[in-house]
Every structure is written in structure tokens, then in C-alpha cells.
Amino acid sequence: MPEADEGAVVNLAQHEDADAAVLLRGVHEAIDASDRLEVTDLSASHDGGAALYKQRLRAARPDLSPDAVDALASRWFFNLRWLGVESGIDVPRYFVRYGGEGATPTPISLFRRRTVDGRPVDEVLKDVGNWQPDSRRGIANALAFPLESDLEQVTADEAAEFEDMARARRYVPFRSHRGPAPTEGRERSEEVP
User: Fold this and answer.
1) What is the pTM of this model?
2) Domain boundaries, given as residue ranges, for the chain
């Protein structure tokens, strides 16, 4: 939970003449319960899974008020839809910029968005293992204006593949973009990089 939110809970406790430590513990327990819910099947729902998420949260924590359930559902929706995190766990999202000549796109830059203390942190890979702040706001712009962006989201496996390319200083299309491998017993007339 961000520090500002913890401060708000402490202020509420003081206003209501309640024990701030007990109230904070209760809020953290409710957040933990919401983060443990199974959510991988919810995005197929017509409403993005909101109704089913709330139903599961009420079943897991029947002691929560309707306002608390709504607040936690809003938090989940924000994490999933805006930050790209399915639960409270930090799951980075990766983006690449493609360049090069030819019909097969070659990745030339790798970006990532991860969450730190509930806030998005956008970074660009400058060298092997050297992530620097995305000072040009490439990811923020890609999310805000996806049709105007030159970044595309990629999988964690493709991001790892890009890091291998950076290590080798040789940039080639992702394996998934190179087409089928040659079949056994038949040689390919041209080698794929």
C-alpha cells in the first residue's frame, strides 16, 4: 500500500478514535486476501470480470462492507487494466521498439514497466543488466496513445531473448517472428539469422 494511503488510514483512525495499528492491519489483511484471489479467468467476462471478482472477494471475506469490496475491486481493476498487474505481485510488462530493414521486424530497444510500492516505474535497457529511467516517457505514451506509438508489448520470454541479443551485440528478429524451422531431412536454401 502506498505511504499516502497508509497516512489516510492513520488519519481516519484518529478521526474515528480507533487504534491505527489495528485498522492498518485490517486493511493490509483485506488487500492480501484480494491479491490471493484467482483472477486469471476473469478477463473473458463481458464486464472484464468485475462482478465475478467482487463475488469471489465477498466469499473470501464476508466481513467486508460493500464499500470495502468496491474499493478493493477498483484497486484490482486499476492494477490489471492500467498497470498490467493481475495481483499485488510485481509482474513486469515489456515493450520493444522495432527497426531495421526487411519484412521481418527486428527489435532495437527494450522497455519495461514494473510496480514499486504500488507505483509504475518505467525503464529502458541501456546495456546488459543496466535499466535506466524511461525519461522520454515511451511506455506512458504507448499506453496513453497506443495507435500513435512505435512500441509494442512483448512477452517476458521475448524480453529475455532481447537481453541475450544485447549480450551478444547481435540483433535479429524474435524466434517467434522468424517462421517455421526447417523440417527434418530437408535443408533450407537460406539461413535465417
Assistant:
1) 0.52
2) 3-83, 93-177
